[in-house]
Amino acid sequence: MKRTVFILVSGDPGKGARPVEAVRVAAGLSVHERLAVTLCLAGESARVLDDDCEDCVDGERVPEFLEILKLSGARVLAGGQRVGPTPAGVQTVTEQELQREMSGADRVLRF
């Protein structure tokens, strides 16, 4: 049985590299055969999904990490009110859905 890991990212990608690093960590964990990974980009961190996130620190690597997540079967969620278009395979969730997802996970990592 796979252990579930929920990675919640809420930092501002314009102010530091943590949000992009969290996406990288999620991609790395997602290839492990005994883990089921869910990545949630909440608040400002969802800007890493934008094609033109020019002020995102290390943001040029995000498409590569998202592709790894997609190929590994990981779930990618965008929490809250997303302004721009959501990339294929990314599901937008409400705060209640976010809380339910987190409470059902074996492990929760917060960035």
What does it look like?
- By secondary structure, the chain is an alpha/beta fold.
- Helices cover 30% and strands 25% of the residues.
- The protein has three helices and five strands; from the N terminus they run βαβαββαβ.
- It has helices at residues 18-30, 62-72, 95-103, and strands at 3-9, 35-42, 75-79, 90-93, 107-110.
- It has a five-stranded parallel beta sheet.
- α1 (18-30) runs parallel beside α2 (62-72).
- The longest helix has 13 residues, at 18-30.
- The chain is globular, with a radius of gyration of 13 Å.
- The model has no long low-confidence stretch (mean pLDDT 89).
- Overall shape: it is globular
Distance between the termini: 26 Å
Number of H/I helices: 3
Biggest β-sheet description: 5 strands, parallel
Radius of gyration (CA) equals 13 Å
Q: Note the beta-strand portion.
A: 25-35%
Mean pLDDT: 89
**Helix share, percent:** 25-40%
SSE order in H/E notation? EHEHEEHE
Structural class: alpha/beta
Sheet with most strands: strand arrangement = 4-3-2-1-5
Total strand count, please?
5
Low-confidence residue ranges: none
List the helices and strands and how they pair.
Layout: E1 3-9, H1 18-30, E2 35-42, H2 62-72, E3 75-79, E4 90-93, H3 95-103, E5 107-110
Parallel strand pairs: 1-2, 1-5, 2-3, 3-4
Which properties best describe this structure?
single chain; 111 residues; alpha/beta; 5-stranded parallel β-sheet; 3 helices; 5 strands; 30% helix; globular
Summary of the model, kept short:
This protein is an alpha/beta fold. It has three helices and five strands; from the N terminus they run βαβαββαβ.
